């Protein structure tokens, strides 16, 4: 399932890019449905920053999914490579549920959008293959799989858009 979001942030591109990359854990307090973002590791080399962040969501799980998704599973690993030369971030998300059956990856591009404005373009995808989960009957996989994808995309996409809105509010408060 495709993930796509475009946001305009009313601050200069370089400031948006560096704040997103370097201060995401501080921005978490501004993001609805996110309890916290933990920085697990950071490596810098020649204009490239590699980050491992853990996102912790605070969201209600739909009843139909409560059979397989527990509250402690609403956290994900965000492995991101930030490239200063093209103000781009390539990311791969790892979930705590169905780890061998879920793939989610994409990129954020930070583009000039007029004086003092930045457009953030996010493109990615989420693929959930419940048929690879041991013990999940094929009929259940076909029935729950699409609902699970929709649930996770509904968690990821709006939160990514809200991250941009939250980042803008954070930058406004810093001014």
Describe the overall structure.
With 175 residues, the protein is α+β, with helices and mostly antiparallel strands. The chain has a single domain, classed as START domain (Alpha-D-Glucose-1,6-Bisphosphate, Chain A, domain 4, 2-Layer Sandwich), CATH 3.30.530.20. 29% of the residues lie in helices and 39% in strands. It has helices spanning 13-22, 24-27, 138-174, and strands at residues 2-9, 34-45, 48-57, 75-83, 88-95, 102-112, 118-128. The chain is elongated, with a radius of gyration of 17 Å. The mean pLDDT is 88.
Could you name the key traits of this structure?
single chain, 175 residues, alpha+beta, Alpha-D-Glucose-1,6-Bisphosphate, Chain A, domain 4, seven-stranded antiparallel sheet, 7 strands
Strand order of the largest sheet: 1-7-6-5-4-3-2
Q: Mind summarizing the main beta sheet?
A: 7 strands, antiparallel
Distance between the termini: 38 Å
Morphology: elongated
Question: Could you say which structural class the secondary elements and strand pairing correspond to?
Answer: alpha+beta
Q: What's the domain count?
A: 1
The CATH class is Alpha Beta
CATH topology value: Alpha-D-Glucose-1,6-Bisphosphate, Chain A, domain 4
Element-by-element helix/strand order: EHHEEEEEEH
How much strand? 35-45%
Tally the beta strands: 7
Helix content: 25-40%
Radius of gyration: 17 Å
What is the annotated CATH architecture?
2-Layer Sandwich
Uncertain segments of ≥5 residues (pLDDT<50)? none
Number of distinct helices? 3
What is the mean pLDDT?
88
The CATH superfamily turns out to be START domain
């Amino acid at each position: 399932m495709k993930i796509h979001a475009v946001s305009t942030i009313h601050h200069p591109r370089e400031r948006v890019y560096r704040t997103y990359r370097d201060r995401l854990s501080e921005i978490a307090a501004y993001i609805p449905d996110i309890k916290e973002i933990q920085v697990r590791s950071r490596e810098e080399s020649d204009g490239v920053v590699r980050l491992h962040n853990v996102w912790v969501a605070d969201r209600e799980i739909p009843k139909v999914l409560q059979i397989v998704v527990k509250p402690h599973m609403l956290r994900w690993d965000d492995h991101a490579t930030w490239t200063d030369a093209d103000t781009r971030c390539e990311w791969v998300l790892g979930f705590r549920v169905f780890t061998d059956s879920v793939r989610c990856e994409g990129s954020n591009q930070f583009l000039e959008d007029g004086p003092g404005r930045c457009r953030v373009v996010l493109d990615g995808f989420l693929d959930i293959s419940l048929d690879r989960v041991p013990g999940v009957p094929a009929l259940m996989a076909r029935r729950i799989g699409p609902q699970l994808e929709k649930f996770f995309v509904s968690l990821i996409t709006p939160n990514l858009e809200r991250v941009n809105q939250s980042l803008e509010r954070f930058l406004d408060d810093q001014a």
